[in-house]
Amino acid sequence: MIPIFKTRYSLARSILDISEELKQKEGGADNIIQIALDHGLKEVVLVEDNMSCFILAYNACRKHGLKLRFGLRLSFCSDATQPKADELHKNIVFLKKSAGYENLVKISTFAATHPFEGEPVVDYDFFHKHRDGLELVVPYFDSYLYRNNTEFAACIPQFRDLNPIHLLERNELPTDQFIEPLLAGKSVVLAKSIFYKNRDDIHIFTTRKLMEKSGGKRRNLECPNLENFCSSEFCWESYQDYMNKH
Prior knowledge:
Layout: E1 2-5, H1 32-38, E2 43-48, H2 54-63, E3 67-77, E4 89-95, H3 101-112, E5 115-116, E6 119-123, H4 124-129, E7 134-138, H5 144-150, E8 165-168, H6 176-179, E9 188-194, H7 202-212, H8 236-245
Parallel strand pairs: 1-2, 1-9, 2-3, 3-6, 7-8, 8-9
Antiparallel strand pairs: 3-4, 4-7, 5-6
């Protein structure tokens, strides 16, 4: 199982920080670098929804002798100038080699200038023209498989000659039983999305998410009304428990 971290720089999607400085302020966010060093990780896999923390993460990993594997999670469609809600689905664009950095920035910029309801969007044509040095990976949540089979969407990926890895997650969610069988015959890697350190941190994470994504709706900790929020397994503690059992 691969731990996949996300930082607070992806708005409302994590409470973890990443920093060169390891000393944690009282009441401050847990540092991904500290978690990695404390538990003997050789690399940090980071998937973000924007590029804002890339340089920060790169410098922090380099300073502490860690390899950084950075991925950008974006919405894909057939035509970014005319996106349709029921065709949008997520893919992760990983930086495979340093030469791909310029292309990743181009894709990020294109997506940021073609938003759909506030979400950056890129189309497959633009991605394939700028994919040199990059690797496409299909996430577990909000992928074409996930949306087509849980939301009755009509997502049609255009992988062309690519045979992308599909991530599989097990977070004790009702949807797990529907998605895993669909991955048969595909190249699959077991992964764990990590948005906070311990299960008890779910309350802090929920509070942060409600503050940043309320959207004008009446929500509270007792009834947050957040999708896929019936599990506290998106944490480092859950990853450790799995690894200790396997």
